[in-house]
Amino acid sequence: MTGGSTYQVIELIGSSSDSWEEAARNAVREAAGTYEDLRVAEVVEMDVLIEDGDIIAFRTKLRLSYKRRTT
Description:
This protein is an alpha+beta fold.
């Protein structure tokens, strides 16, 4: 069989003091330093950390796929 691809999937949680979008960017940026050929990130969950009645951090959980290297 030729022409197929295999992708590995990992879950990551990014955080940001500014927004969920920035939290996702931070997770992808961090993953890019470790994994090659990133493909798709699916937002699985978003939440916030609260301290003294104020939001102190936005967190975004991503399911991220990258192309698996064949040897």
